[in-house]
Amino acid sequence: MPKKPKKQQQSGGTPATVALTAAGVPFTVHSYDHDPSHPSYGEEAAEAMGVSPDRVFKTLVADVDGALTVAVVPVAGSLDLKALATAAGGKRAAMADPALAERTTGYVRGGISPLGQRKMLPTVLDASASTHDTICVSAGRRGLEVELAPTDLAHLTKAVLAPIARA
Q1: SS3 (DSSP) at 89
Q2: Which end of the chain is more exposed for a tag (fewer CB within 10 A), N or C?
Q3: How many CA atoms lie within 13 A of 150 on its CB side?
Q4: Which residues have a Cβ under 8 Å from the Cβ of 50 and sit 6 or more positions away?
Q5: Structure pTM?
Q6: 3-state DSSP call for residue 53?
Q7: In what order do the strands lie in the sheet with 57-64?
């Protein structure tokens, strides 16, 4: 019996942009040519878009006391795992296995979006996001970012805002 073709998303959208459109949230998509040799996906995005790295946020998946948790922090800094554990109501946090993060979110590493994930995970957004009118996060694939208000991102992901980034 032949396999059913995968359902195409309209207009080449990703699950993240489809979720934003469905929610009626204003957003802007930024596309750039991804360079696989660049050492940092987030810094590459900031450079390619000409946006300050403190306004471009990376999506990281961590394990907090056995539960996968999404951390969204500026690409200019790094994730403070102790602060994430505290913000998520746990004791210990460690970075999740990349293959597990990809399977659970439905996205590939370097293109994991906090939006439109296969399974909605608890999310913590770094408090610095609230100092900007808009921030950029992955739109669901390498070379594609979405710009939106941090309040909209927090609302759609049910995120907790907490200081989880280190400079």
Answers
A1: coil
A2: N
A3: 22
A4: none
A5: 0.89
A6: coil
A7: 93-95, 57-64, 67-74, 123-126, 160-162
